C-alpha cells in the first residue's frame, strides 16, 4: 500500500512553504522539477518504502509563497539552507530532478555538510556547447510532451502535462512556469558560474539520465560526471527527460542502493 502523505506549512525565512512528507525511516529530501510534482507520484512512493521523504514546494510553486524574494538560483539555494535549518536536517541524502537537481548541486556547494549523498536526475544548471536545452517556456503542450517523454502518448505523459488551456492543472502549471522563469529565464536554465564550483561537490553522486532526453541532452550528464569528483552516470535506454515516470523502479533502485 502506498505511503500516506502528510501535508503542512512551514515559515522559512519569512516565506510560507508547503511541505509534504511520506514514508517512514531515515530522512531523504526530494527537490522537484519545473513541473512542480509536489503531490505523491509512484517514484516518491518507491523512495518512501525506505525513507521519510520530504518534498518541499519551491517558493512560488503549489501553495508556497515568497517568490518575490527569489531573484536567481542562488536565492533558491539559500532558501534551502534555511529550510534544512528549520527542519533540523543535516547530512541527509538529497535527490533532485531537473530544476530540483540544479538546486541540489548549488546547495551542495554552499553547505556541503547538509548533504550526505546526491541523486541528480536529468539535471539543469549547465550550458554545454553543442547540446542546447529544449525550450521549456512554450504553450504547445503536444510539443512539450515530445520534449519531455520518450513516448509522448504514454499515460504518464498525458497525465502530467495539461492537454489544453481549460485543463484543471493549468493554474498550478502557470504558477510553476512563473516560478521557474524567475530562476531560469535569463540565462536560460543554467548558472554560468556553476562549472567552476563543481569540484567542491565531493559527496557520492549518482547521475541518472535518459538516453533520449531532448530537454536536457545527455552531454549535460556527461559533463557533470566528468567534473564532479565522486560521481557516476547511469544512462537509461528508451527514456527521455521524464525519468521518474518513464523508469520509476529502475531510477529508485539506482538511487537507493
TrEMBL record:
<dbReference type="GO" id="GO:0102296">
    <property type="term" value="F:4,5-9,10-diseco-3-hydroxy-5,9,17-trioxoandrosta-1(10),2-diene-4-oate hydrolase activity"/>
</dbReference>
<keyword id="KW-0378">Hydrolase</keyword>
<dbReference type="GO" id="GO:0016020">
    <property type="term" value="C:membrane"/>
</dbReference>
<protein>
    <submittedName>
        <fullName>4,5:9,10-diseco-3-hydroxy-5,9, 17-trioxoandrosta-1(10),2-diene-4-oate hydrolase</fullName>
        <ecNumber>3.7.1.17</ecNumber>
    </submittedName>
</protein>
<dbReference type="InterPro" id="IPR050266">
    <property type="entry name" value="AB_hydrolase_sf"/>
</dbReference>
<dbReference type="Pfam" id="PF12697">
    <property type="entry name" value="Abhydrolase_6"/>
</dbReference>
<dbReference type="InterPro" id="IPR000073">
    <property type="entry name" value="AB_hydrolase_1"/>
</dbReference>
<dbReference type="InterPro" id="IPR029058">
    <property type="entry name" value="AB_hydrolase_fold"/>
</dbReference>
<feature type="domain" description="AB hydrolase-1">
    <location>
        <begin position="29"/>
        <end position="253"/>
    </location>
</feature>
